[in-house]
TrEMBL record, chain A:
Segments passing through the bilayer: 30-53, 65-91, 125-144, 150-171, 178-200, 234-256
Keywords: Cell inner membrane, Cell membrane, Membrane, Nodulation, Transmembrane, Transmembrane helix, Transport
Function statement: Part of the ABC transporter complex NodIJ involved in the export of the nodulation factors (Nod factors), the bacterial signal molecules that induce symbiosis and subsequent nodulation induction. Nod factors are LCO (lipo-chitin oligosaccharide), a modified beta-1,4-linked N-acetylglucosamine oligosaccharide. This subunit encodes the transporter.
Protein localization: Cell inner membrane
A Gene Ontology biological process term: oligosaccharide transport
Name of a matching Pfam family: ABC2_membrane
Taxonomic placement: Bacteria, Pseudomonadati, Pseudomonadota, Alphaproteobacteria, Hyphomicrobiales
Protein family (similarity comment): Belongs to the ABC-2 integral membrane protein family. Lipooligosaccharide exporter (TC 3.A.1.102) subfamily.
Protein name in UniProt: Nodulation protein J
Subunit structure: The complex is composed of two ATP-binding proteins (NodI) and two transmembrane proteins (NodJ).
Membrane topology: Multi-pass membrane protein
Cellular compartments per GO CC: ATP-binding cassette (ABC) transporter complex
């Protein structure tokens, strides 16, 4: 039992950095394409929906639709970037490329590797979310300097979604299973959590359900920061995101232990 | 420091109800080259993984470099270099970057790794490839890079799972030569292989495995002497059963494997005399090797 934990937990507080740096080195080679790829999608949504639907919707919650949408798109882009990095790139490193296997031959543990991958996915989420925040701010759809409060939340959102996705990565036999996670978990979350329209528009049951979804907590923190409004229940939202970041981490590490060290 | 590098005592492993390693015990002395020789599925990789603490045995005790494994495997792995059966280099990185990234996993600073990269490249004969992407390297070069990577933490013990499988003879000889130079430097090596020649040339001692069980252990030449101890004539192209009765009075032992008849003969001339006049036979006389030992112990050939 002790050795089971020793393999699944991080060995120390800094081993994960070597994994992060490995991914950073790989990313640097394709940085431009990666940044454009991560930004393009949410930008298209932001301005496509924002201006297109904005005409129909008019003002919402006392602000323009684009400004309302900006907070939702920032949170969503962090969610998507962290998730994709974990279910596709980290899965490849774990499975087909055998990168994790090579790392396990050194003095790193599975816990170190998972932590390094999560930190890396959160970094990419931070880049994506921050990129959109910057554009929204430059165009006047987000308020300076309160927008700065959104930045740590973007990173935390990335960490929470990376951690959740890591459980899926640990369980999936192949890439084919990730589609289910995308269509059954991520896409519904987009509509349940107030990313594109206020949660108040939903039937009551769904509103209740939204309280348990990490994206809702992320949006409740990011949108007020972008609109320079006070955020309610900050402790609750941050606490919920932290739980989503921490618990799946331990679960996924235990699952990887079973999968990779049979 | 203890003179025992690896100690396996009564180790067993079962996967999904199938016994893969069965009550295996052996010791590897420091500075020795120890071989695990066996056909596909014999359990070689499973044993290598257990030595590294990557798989826990269901029964038995493992001690590596004085440390109980898997309980404190991390400590042992800090002093072990690994060449896995399947290459797991970072294909998108250059040769140099692969070494740099791997050194950091051992807690080395960029500067520390960069200081030893030239000597590692020289060892692996990859000096001119420092900035080549791994995806551009040949199979033999990749294997040598994996070997250089395994040396980055200056390990006492090297665990190599089929280090030369899939390489052409030239690349294989180069690896063998490099491994001998490591042994000369006092490193301990445990390697798995299904090449008799590799085991015979490199290993001080070896353990012959079949279905997870040890069927013989010892110095390669001692094993050959003890199990065979005479010349071998391989006979192709006749009816094995007819030939069997013809030459059996002159043979110490005869094995039939497929179309081939292996005749172990203290006096090979006598056998040749008996077979004179049989058209269409091809005879090959050679000294005995580990293949014969395996055939004798298991009744079948290892390769194939
Ligand atoms: N994770 C696993 N789950 C189930 N069975 C396994 C697992 N790993 C190995 N085995 C089985 O254990 C047996 C021994 O496998 P192992 O890889 O140790 O053999 P090997 O001697 O290295 O063979 P090869 O020469 O093909 O590499 C095989 O029958 C294999 O199918
Ligand atoms: Mg194997």
């Amino acid at each position: 039992m002790r050795e089971l934990c020793a393999a699944a937990l991080p060995a120390n507080a800094w081993n994960w950095i070597a994994v992060w740096r490995r991914n950073y080195l790989a990313w640097k080679k394709v940085a431009l394409a990666s940044i454009l790829g991560n930004l393009a999608d949410p930008m298209i949504y932001l301005f496509g929906l924002g201006f297109g639907l904005g005409v129909v919707v008019g003002r919402i919650d006392g602000t323009s639709y684009v400004a309302f949408l900006a907070g939702g798109m920032v949170a969503t882009s962090a969610m998507t970037a962290a998730t994709f990095e974990t279910i596709y790139a980290a899965f490849a490193r774990m499975h087909a490329q055998r990168t994790w296997e090579a790392i396990l031959y050194t003095q790193l543990t599975l816990g170190d590797i998972v932590l390094g991958e999560l930190a890396w996915a959160a970094t990419k989420a931070f880049l994506a979310g921050t990129g959109i925040t910057v554009v929204a701010t430059l165009l006047g759809y987000a308020a300076w300097p309160s927008v700065l409060y959104a930045l740590p939340v973007i990173a935390l959102t990335g960490l929470a979604f990376a951690s959740l996705a890591m459980v899926i990565t640990a369980l999936a036999p192949s890439y084919d299973y990730f589609v289910f996670y995308q269509t059954l978990v991520l896409t519904p979350m987009l509509f349940l959590c107030g990313a594109v329209f206020p949660v108040a528009q939903l039937p009551n049951v769904f509103q209740q359900a939204a309280h348990f979804l990490p994206l809702a907590h992320a949006i409740d923190l990011i949108r007020p920061a972008l609109l320079s409004r006070p955020a309610g229940n900050m402790g609750l939202h941050i606490g919920a995101l932290c739980i989503y970041a921490v618990l799946p981490f331990f679960l996924s590490a235990a699952l990887f232990r079973r999968r990779l060290m049979p | 420091m203890s003179t025992v590098a690896i100690d396996l005592a009564g180790v067993s492993k079962t996967y999904e109800g199938k016994v893969v390693v069965d009550g295996l015990s052996f010791r590897v002395a420091a500075g020795e080259c120890f071989g695990l020789l066996g056909p596909n599925g014999a359990g070689k990789s499973t044993i290598a993984r257990m030595v590294l603490g990557m798989t826990s045995p269901d029964a038995g005790e493992i001690t590596v470099l004085g440390v109980p494994v898997p309980a404190r495997a991390r400590l042992a792995r800090a002093r072990i270099g690994v060449v896995p059966q399947f290459d797991n280099l970072d294909l998108e990185f250059t040769v140099r970057e692969n070494l740099l990234v791997f050194g950091r996993y051992f807690g080395m600073s960029t500067r520390e790794v960069e200081a030893i990269i030239p000597s590692l490249l020289e060892f692996a004969r990859l000096e001119s490839k420092a900035h080549a992407r791994v995806s551009e390297l040949s199979g033999g070069m990749k294997r040598r890079l994996t070997l250089a990577r395994a040396l980055i933490n200056d390990p006492q013990l090297l665990v190599m799972d089929e280090p030369t499988t899939g390489l052409d003879p030239h690349a294989r000889h180069l690896i063998w030569e490099r491994l001998r130079s490591l042994l000369a430097r006092g490193k301990t090596i445990i390697l798995t292989t299904h090449f008799m020649e590799e085991a015979e040339r490199l290993c001080d001692r070896l353990c012959v495995l079949e279905k997870g069980r040890k069927i013989a252990e010892g110095h390669p030449h001692a094993l050959i002497e003890e199990q065979i101890g005479c010349q071998v004539i391989e006979i192709y192209g006749g009816n094995p059963h007819e030939l069997h009765s013809l030459i059996s009075p002159y043979a110490q032992r005869i094995e039939v494997s497929g179309e081939t008849l292996f005749c172990y003969a203290p006096d090979p001339e006598q056998v040749r005399l008996q077979l004179r006049g049989h058209a269409g036979l091809r005879l090959l006389q050679r000294p005995p090797n580990l293949e014969d030992v395996f055939l004798r112990l298991t009744g079948r050939e290892m390769e194939k």
